[in-house]
Amino acid sequence: MVRSPFRRGVAEGLPFLVIMVPFGALFGVLGVEAGLPIAQVMGFSVLVIAGASQFTAVQLMLDSVPAVIVVLSALAVNLRMAMYSAAMVPHIGAAPLWQRSLIAYFLVDQTYALSVSAYEDRVDWGIADKVAYFAGTALPVFPAWVGSTFVGAVLGARVPDEWALDFALPLAFLALVGPLLKTRAHVAAAFVSVVGALALVWVPWNLGLILAAILALMTGAEVERRTAARPVGTEQRT
């Protein structure tokens, strides 16, 4: 049976609940432990909607880092959203402004990864189909993130340590990155980011992650340039 783009988006977004629920709950717990009232913790998840930068900000707050560094670090981590937006423009750039505004709000790692992968597979989709698919991916992801954050914030320190909710953080990004490693440039960038993050762990205020990301971007771009310069017909995929 052929599913509509929206229903396909919902179906492919649902598996992320396995990761999003403990991920959001962990942020709620950490936010409360950092001294934030529940309203501010929820404001983080509703307004920022970016787990990695939220965790970065809260961790730096716990370490009593100056506020300006907290803000700049969170913004730096979220710079990937600018790249996500640029990658979405060829697909939904001609959509009405109100639709693009909502897509910008709900554009997170999960909705981006699913959408870009689907758009590459379904070249026959029009703009309306692509917008509908994106809406489908966001439908389960966003409520799960906000709802689980609230549960974590309410429970706070009452969450048993043996639940080990922190497993969700690395799993969330592994689940996203794995299916997207399709070319040599992707693999090279991922490898450099991992090595760089480990080598630069000594850099204060977690800024080593930003440096590792920059190195990874440069590596991926260079590998992509060299691949494009090869004769037509050369195999690019891994």
TrEMBL record:
It comes from the Bacteria. It holds the Pfam family AzlC. It is a multi-pass membrane protein. Keywords: Cell membrane, Membrane, Transmembrane, Transmembrane helix, Transport. It is found in: Cell membrane. GO terms for biological process: L-valine transmembrane transport. The keyword Transmembrane helix applies. GO terms for cellular component: plasma membrane. InterPro entries: Brnchd-chn_aa_trnsp_permease. The chain crosses the membrane at residues 13-32, 131-156, 163-181, 187-217. Its main location: membrane. Belongs to the AzlC family. PANTHER family: INNER MEMBRANE PROTEIN YGAZ. This is 4-azaleucine resistance probable transporter AzlC. It comes from Jannaschia helgolandensis.
